[in-house]
Amino acid sequence: MTPARARAAVTVSGVVVAAVAVVALGVFGGPGEARRAERDSRRLEHLSEIVAAVTCHVRAGADPARPAALVEITAACLAPTRAAAFVDPLTGAAYPLDYPDAGTVRVCATLERPEPRPWMAPAFDAATGCLAAALTAGAAG
C-alpha cells in the first residue's frame, strides 16, 4: 500500500468512526442523558417505597391517620433513617404527600424525562410524575 493510500484509508476510517459516534450520541444520548435517567429511576424507586410505607402506616391504624410528612410514618413501616434518604436526587427536596380523597395517597416527583413507564403500577401518571395508592384502614397489608 502506498503512503497516499494508507493516509486515505486512515482518513476514511476516522470519518466512519466519527459518524458512528455522532449517530450513537443521537440515538442513546450522552452522559448527561444517562444521569437524568438514573435520577428518574431513583425518584420512581422512592415513590414506590413511600407509597408502600404510607399504605402500611394507614392499614396499621397508626397515628396520625394521614401523615403529612415521612417523619410521621411509624418506624414499623418506614425507618426514620430511611425516611431521611427519600429526597429528590437533584434538588434534595422532600416528596410531598397528598391525599386527594379520604381513601387515596398520592406522592409526586418532578421527572426529568416524563415518559410512560409500562413497568410502573397502573396508578402511576408519567405526565405528572405522581404515583397513587388506595388506602384501607384495617385491611391486610
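Above is the first protein from milestone M3; the second protein from the same milestone is given next.
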Amino acid sequence: MVKDIITYPTPPSVEYATDVRVFDDDLFTLIEDLKDTIKANQLDGLAAYQIGNYFNVVIIKQDDDFLELINPRVINPIGKVTTEETTSYFPNLSAKVPRYEKISVIYQDRDSNQHSLKADGSLSILLQRKIDYTFGSTFLNKLTKDEKKRFEKKLEFGSNVAIPESCPIVSYKDYLNKLSNIFLIVIALLLVGSFFISDETTLQEIWNYQKYISYATVINGFIYLVYGYYEGKRYSSCTSCQIGNLIGTLTISFIKLTVLMVLSFFLVT
C-alpha cells in the first residue's frame, strides 16, 4: 500500500527508529508498503521513519530489485566528500552536505540473518541519508554553519534559490554614495558663495572648510569601496555590487571632487 511521505514542516510522528526484534507479518507488510511508496513516487530509497513508522527499516531501489536493510548501522567510514543533496522531507530544496566517501553497513534481512556491504559513490550517500532518518535526523543536522543559514533561508522562502546571495533591496553603500554627493554639493555651494565675498580671511576660512570636506569625501569613498567589495563577495548575483561598478562610481565622484577643488584653489584662495 502506498503511504504518505512526511514532509517539512510536519514533524515526524516518531523521534527515532526502534530496532526490529520480531520478524513477522507486520514487518513484511511495512517492507512492501515502503516498496510501493518508492515506486509510486519514483524514489531511490525510503526509511520507515519517513512514513511515520518506528521500525528501523530502510529500503533501497536497485534497478528492478530492492535492497532490504533491517536494523542498519554504518561502520568503518572512510574519506570525506561534500555532495549536493535533495530529500523527500524537504521537497524541491537542495543543500551541500558533508558525507563519508565510503562506508560499510551491517544489517539484517527479513529472515533476521546478518549481512554486511561496502558502498561508495551515490549508493554510499543514499545509504547515509536514509540511515540518518533512523536516528531522527535529516541532512539539516549535517550542514556547516554557513550552509545551514543558506538552507534555512530556502525553507523560509520556499525556494531553492540561494536567497542570501540575492541582491539586497537597500544597501548601505547607497547611503555612502549619497553622503559623498552631499559633500560635493556643499563644496560647490561654498565655491559659489565665495564669489560674493571679498574679505581675505573669510575666503581662507571657506578654503579650509572645503579642504576638510574634501578629506571627508575621500575617506567616505574609501569606506564605500571596502563595503561595496564586501557586498560583492556576499551577494555574487548582484551586478550593482561588483567591483567594476564600484570603481566606476568612485572614479566619477573623485573627478567631480578634483574639478571643484582645482576651481576653488584658483578662485577662492
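Note on the second protein: The chain has a mean pLDDT of 88.
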